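Go through this:
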Amino acid sequence: MKRTPFKKIALLAGSFIVVTGGSIAANVPKIAEEFPTIPLQVVESLTTIPSLFLIFSVLFSHTIARWIGYKKTVLLGLGIVTVSGLIPVFVHNFWVIFLSRAFFGIGIGLFNSLLVSFIRYFYEGKERATMIGFQSAFEGIGGMTISFLVGQLLKISWQTSFWVYIAALPAFVLFALFVPDIPAEPSGFSGKRGADDARERDTEGKGKGKMRAGTFGYIALLFVVVMFYMSITVRVTPLMTTIGYGDATDGSNILSFIGIGAMAAGFLFGQIFTFIGKYTLPIAFLLLGLSLFAVGQSNSVLVTGLAAALCGFSFRTFIPYLFNKVNSSHTGNANLSTSLLLVGFNLGAALSPYGIALLEKLFRLASIRAIFTTEAAILLGFSAVSFGYHFFVGPRKAIE
């Protein structure tokens, strides 16, 4: 099948809007003023409600795709995102806006995991890992770009700022024009043809249970790591203002450093994975633990910013590693594994404040510095265990 640059761009364009559900957070104060009878917590939920409904729709996206086709399902999701994203521009009814945000999440969930299926079908080996890394990078770029544009358009009005979601329209057009449909049968996702398909189907049937067990371990790991990663978003501004070396603007800038590190990791993931291979996971844990430790000990905006960039880099090395891992294995249900990983990711992000609170209670943490230090210690422990496994258990298994 012809591999044009336009097909790659079209596959990545959808990822540009995947993590933009919370990008309208800057709108919350203005919307709260506009609808004074609506409780503030409900207004704030406009930023989180897409993630909750995304979790629901991502579980059924492959079932719908088998029914109406994979390409049509992606286009349906992009269409829902375009329409629901723009509804607040024209409607001045809070509950209609609230409902549109729910549909926005449903739309994202419909095509999010399917984009990985298309990448798995069209690409193999290093090229597949590179594309999954690029997908992660485009998610970061989209989140930063949309958040910036929201802030600029907010100077006109809060309703005008929702025009940012017109970005879903070119993604729809590009996908419709340049991405061919793919078959729904499991064998169609191997990226190989002929005799390889039969062999992989046989392997898949024999190893299905084993892969699923491993996937659940990945989901639990992802859930914990995402909660820790999100703590820098939730607590870095309070940390800086409490200690006295930064203000709210500095805290906002720190989040941009995270995005820069995340983008760099996404674009470099293919090369990183090729160079360090199975050690990608323990090294990602090591760097993430060191970055959170540096944030917790910092007394400088510059140091915190550099640590935040390392945090984004290491996290966005960890994420595509997991997705590449489950999509490169010939055992288990890769579609289901991808969907469940996305569920774990969004649950970890949504429950991060509660996870931090639980951590504070379990370890009796009395300061924000202690939170970051404890999370760093846990991640460094993950790194040590992972290194130990690859050094001692892995080689022994290979011999057996």
